[in-house]
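Translate sequence into structure tokens.
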Amino acid sequence: MAKLKANRVINGTFGSIWVNGEKWAEVKSFELKVQGQYEDVNFCEELGKHRKYMGFEGSGTITLQKVYDRGAKLLAEAFKSGEMPDVKIVGKLADPAAFGHTRVEATEVTFDEFTLLKFENKALGEEELPFQFADYDLIDAI
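Result follows.
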């Protein structure tokens, strides 16, 4: 394997997200992760635990610099009415010095919570939006 150079490590500063096609430029951090769900399987005369894959759970978090009321605009009425919006999130990380870019789409996104109002004296405002998703596609990979 060839020796790698430090400038090839991808830099999060070049990340972007789009929520339902709208670019959210004030993103501070973004995470999408998938966790496997398994059931334990035990066999007679074996002491080891086996596992059967049963599916996955997708989750993530968007942390925003507080510029807009993103969570409230998207979710306030939905939480009160029970009619949840159909949400799709596309995330992209594209450092020009890296070997390429990564782009992922999460669909059937449901948000767990949103903050109506939060502030701290002499502190920059942030908004955190934790969510779950039912499906995903790895559109581009490095």
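Note: Residues 55 and 90 are 22 Å apart (CA to CA).
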